[in-house]
């Protein structure tokens, strides 16, 4: 018997557009906030503070979810902990933040490659081309002497993108779990993981927090509340109102904002290899993102039909 059709999506209006703009600005400006934070507070400790803020905001939603605790705990350690070890360290050791913003786009092709390897998903030529373009775009950064000197930062950013991709697979097993509950566990496990890591590799950093300048706490609060809670909350709000194939491509403005904001704020020039590499990488990410969202909508429609 054919199942009932889902309710029609609401029209995309001015309020939705305002939310999209806010979401991309929050995500795009976050790289500047994190870089400022790790300049004033040791990077692992800065990540712990961000996750503590997330936990405090979402604590009321923390609860045991029967049958979902293994993926929730794994996601908490990886997304709340290991991801921020890599990304905060990459920003702490790098000066060319714009180059890191471009390399951060590897998360999308990595997630698709993992879906192929782990979930045995089959893809066609357009998404293969998108994957190749994304990696080629990041590869073009080696032709920029300033970006090429950020080898360690780029490697750490690539590692964080791989962790993000693994987390995207785990999140597929959490369908039906409230978003705030997911982020409550991410905040809890992230705080514990990063707190222990900070105690181990940054001795004395946590004890020195009462003397930390307010200038360090403001960007951390922006990251925790703005980028994580409001940014991802906006994404979930949009997905509840519109198809995935409509919403997902709208996130592609965030890395453009990141590169432009980093160049302006830190005074790093936008060289032709960075512009070309960013454009090629974004084209590849756009192809993968749009085609994957469209495929997801088709698959959902077939199951409901």
Whole-number average pLDDT?
87
Rg from alpha-carbon coordinates: 19 Å
Low-confidence stretches: 1-7
Distance between the termini: 9 Å
Category by helix and strand content = mainly alpha
Run of helices and strands: HHHHHHHHHHHHH
Helix content: over 70%
What's the main sheet like?
none
Strand share of the residues? under 5%
Description:
This protein has 305 residues and is an all-alpha fold. It contains 13 helices and no strands. It has helices spanning 14-40, 43-58, 69-92, 97-103, 107-119, 125-139, 145-148, 151-171, 179-201, 214-241, 244-247, 253-266, 272-304. The model is unreliable at 1-7 (pLDDT under 50).
Task: From the structure above, extract its key features.
single chain; 75% helix; 305 residues; mainly alpha
Layout of SSEs?
Layout: H1 14-40, H2 43-58, H3 69-92, H4 97-103, H5 107-119, H6 125-139, H7 145-148, H8 151-171, H9 179-201, H10 214-241, H11 244-247, H12 253-266, H13 272-304
Helix pairs in contact: 1-3, 1-10, 1-12, 2-3, 2-9, 2-10, 3-8, 3-9, 4-12, 4-13, 5-6, 5-8, 6-13
What is the gist of this entry?
By secondary structure, this protein is mainly alpha-helical. It has 13 helices and no strands.
């Amino acid at each position: 018997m054919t199942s009932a059709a889902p309710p029609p999506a609401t029209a995309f209006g001015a309020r939705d557009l305002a939310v999209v703009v806010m979401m991309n600005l929050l995500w795009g400006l976050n790289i500047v906030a994190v870089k400022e934070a790790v300049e004033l507070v040791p990077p692992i400790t800065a990540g712990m503070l961000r996750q503590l803020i997330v936990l405090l905001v979402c604590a009321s939603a923390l609860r045991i979810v029967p049958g979902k605790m293994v993926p929730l705990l794994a996601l908490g350690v990886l997304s709340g902990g290991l991801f921020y070890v890599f990304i905060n360290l990459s920003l702490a050791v790098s000066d060319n933040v714009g180059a890191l913003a471009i390399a951060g786009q590897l998360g999308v092709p990595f997630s698709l490659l993992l879906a192929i390897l782990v979930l045995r998903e089959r893809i066609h030529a357009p998404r293969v081309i998108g994957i190749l373009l994304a990696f080629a775009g990041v590869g073009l950064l080696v032709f920029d002497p300033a970006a090429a000197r950020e080898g360690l930062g780029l490697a750490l950013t690539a590692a964080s993108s791989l962790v993000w991709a693994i987390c995207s697979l785990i999140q597929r097993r959490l369908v039906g779990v409230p978003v705030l509950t997911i982020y409550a566990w991410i905040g809890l496990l992230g705080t514990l993981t990063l707190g222990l890591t900070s105690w181990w590799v940054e001795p004395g950093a946590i004890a020195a927090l009462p003397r930390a300048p307010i200038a360090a706490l403001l960007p951390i609060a922006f990251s925790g509340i703005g980028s994580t809670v409001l940014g991802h909350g906006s994404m979930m709000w949009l997905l509840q109102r519109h198809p995935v194939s409509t919403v997902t491509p709208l996130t592609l403005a965030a890395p453009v904002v990141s590169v432009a904001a980093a160049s302006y704020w830190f005074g790093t020039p936008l060289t032709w290899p960075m512009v070309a590499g960013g454009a090629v990488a974004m084209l590849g990410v756009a192809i993968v993102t749009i085609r994957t969202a469209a495929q997801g909508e088709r698959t959902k429609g077939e199951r409901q039909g």
